[in-house]
Amino acid sequence: MAEIIPADPAYSARAAVPPEPAPGNETGNAIEARGLRKVYRASGGQPAKEALRGIDLAVPRGSIFGLLGPNGAGKSTFINILAGLVIKTSGSASVWGFDIDVNPRQARAAIGVVPQELNIDPFFTPAEVLELQAGLYGVPKRERRTMEILRAMGLEDKADAYARTLSGGMRRRLLVAKAMVHNPPVLVLDEPTAGVDIELRKQLWDYVKSLHEQGTTIVLTTHYLEEAEALCDTIAIIDKGQLVACEPTQRLIARITDKKLIMRTARPVTPEMAAMEGLRTEITQSGALSVQYNPLEASVMDILDRVRARGLEIVDISTEESDLEDVFLQLTSSH
Ligand code: ADP
What we know:
This protein is an alpha/beta fold. It has two domains: 9-249, P-loop containing nucleotide triphosphate hydrolases (Rossmann fold, 3-Layer(aba) Sandwich); 259-334, Alpha-Beta Plaits. It contains eleven helices and 14 strands. The strands form three sheets. The chain has a six-stranded mixed beta sheet, sandwiched between helices. A four-stranded antiparallel beta sheet has the order 2-1-4-5. A four-stranded antiparallel beta sheet has the order 12-13-11-14, with helices on one face. β12 (280-283) and β13 (289-293) form a beta hairpin. The longest helix is centred in the middle third of the chain and has 16 residues, at 198-213. The protein starts with 28 loop residues before the first strand and ends with a helix. It binds adenosine-5'-diphosphate. Adenosine-5'-diphosphate binds next to β2 and α1.
C-alpha cells in the first residue's frame, strides 16, 4: 500500500461538480477509461504485478453498473485509480468528464467511494465523522447536509452515539453516508455486502436503489453474480486485469447462464454414448451423464430425447446452474 496519495487539504468540492458533465464530455459517460494499465512495483520480495492490462470501459451516466470479477481481478485497483488513491501506470481515465490527469481535483470531487473495510474511528460520533469528512472536502458549513444524510441512511437517532457502539450494519451505512458528504454524482461501492448478513444485504440494496432513483450513478464491485444481476443494469466482468465482457445485464446473463443436466442411467454410459454433437457432455465420477447446455439454444426435452435415442434409460435427473468460475472460464475461453 505504498502508493496511497494523501488527502489534499486545499481540496474544494465547491467549484468542482456541475450537474452536467464537463465540456468535451459529449458522450455523457460518468466514467471512461482507455487503455488503463497498472503495474505495482516489486517490493518486499514480492515481484511486480500487472493488475490492470489495458482496460477500455465506459459507465453511462445514470446507470447502476456492476464491476464483477474474482478476487485479485483488479477491481479495487481500477476504482482506486479513479478515486485518486492509486497512480496509474499508463492509459487515461475520466470521472464525470474530468480527466484524472488534467483535472484531478474535479475528478476526485465527482466520485465517492465506499470502502470494503469497516474502518471507523471509534471515538467519533456519526455526526462528527460526517462533519470532518465535509471539512476535508471543503464543503462550506452552510452547505453541509449532515443530518439529512444521516436520516437517509437510517442513522438519525445515532447521530451523537460513539461509533464504537454501532453495529456492523450501522457502520456500513455510516461509510455510505461518508462517501455522500460532498454530494458526488458517482458513487462507488466496493464489495458492499462482503461478510454481511442477508437482512442487511437487502437493506443495503434498497439504499443503493433509492440513491440511484435520486439520480446518482452507481458503480458496484462484487464477486457475486447474483448481486450484480439483482441490482445492475449493465455488468462488466474483469479477470486477471482484463475486461472479458461488458453488456446489459439481461443479455449477459442469458449468454452465460449455462445449465447442467445430470442424469443417472440404468446401465453405465460409455464415452461413445456420452458424445453428443453441439453439447458439452461428460461422465461424472459417480458414472452419471452430465450435459451442459444453454437454455436459449437447447431444450431439456430435446436433450432427453437424444439420450434416450442412445438406448439409455434415465432413472434420475437433476439440474445445476453454472457457478461464477464456470462463467469466467466460458467467457475467457471464447474471448
Ligand atoms: P480485486 O479488487 O479484484 O480483488 P485488486 O485490484 O485488489 O483486485 O488486486 C489486483 C492484483 O494486484 C492482485 O494480484 C493484488 O495482489 C495486486 N495488488 C493490489 N494492490 C497491490 C499493492 N498495493 N501492491 C502490490 N500488488 C497489489
